[in-house]
Design a protein that fits this description.
- It contains 4 helices and 10 strands, in the order αββββαβββαββαβ.
- The protein is α+β, with helices and mostly antiparallel strands.
- The protein folds into 2 domains: 71 residues, wza like domain (wza like fold, 2-Layer Sandwich), CATH 3.30.1950; 83 residues, Outer membrane lipoprotein wza domain like (Outer membrane lipoprotein wza fold like).
Length: 199
């Protein structure tokens, strides 16, 4: 009789997979999780730590923290509104402002630490609250992080509230339809400061 030997990590992976299935959630593999800062589409948020450098300009290399108002300061450039921009967009903005001093400047912007990608899950979940995530997640993953649904959750009336240009925008999500393979596009990726409401 052959014995099946499983490592502790293997047993844990199986347990998470089974328990995730029982809750109706998919457990994402840590190996496939991409840090938000490495995503070219990631939009910089307040409190993120950035590394900015200009090629061949040693005096123009800085690590800066995005202020709560979304701005940063950089030598020869002054104030720049960084929040909401991708790394590539911020590179272009800095290069444009440097033209007077450094023609054809080659600017590099990296997100060293994602500190501002916070989402909120409230209502009928087991552990409601604020969650700092290192990568973009969708609605189902956010509910998973919050411990899953409580017994009283109305899974068909979930809403995501997002503030856009000072106004609130609402997205509706029906978990019952989602697990049946319907309206899969409604399981949107969340952005910084999104609020997931589970009635």
């Amino acid at each position: 009789m052959r014995l099946l030997r499983l490592s502790l990590a293997g047993v844990l992976a199986i347990f998470l997979s089974i328990s995730g299935s029982l809750m109706g959630f998919q457990v994402a593999s840590a190996e496939t999780a991409q840090p938000a800062g490495a995503d070219p589409e990631y939009r910089i948020s307040a409190e993120d730590l950035l590394e900015i450098s200009v090629w061949r300009e040693e005096d123009l290399q800085r690590q800066v923290v995005v202020r709560p108002d979304g701005g940063i300061s950089f030598p020869l450039v002054g104030e720049i509104a960084a929040a909401g921009l991708t790394s590539a967009e911020l590179e272009e903005e800095i290069a444009s402002k440097l033209k007077t001093y450094v023609p054809d400047a080659v600017v590099s912007v990296s997100v060293l630490e994602v500190r501002g990608l916070k989402i909120y899950v409230t209502g009928q979940v087991r552990n409601p609250g604020q969650f700092l995530v290192a990568r973009y997640i969708d609605i189902v993953q956010a509910i998973t992080i919050a411990g899953g649904f409580s017994p009283f959750a109305k899974k068909g009336d979930i809403k995501v509230v997002r503030r856009v240009n000072g106004r609130e925008k609402t997205f509706e999500f029906n978990y019952g339809r989602y697990i049946k393979g319907r309206d899969l596009d409604k399981n949107i990726m969340l952005e910084a400061d999104d609020v997931v409401l589970v009635p």
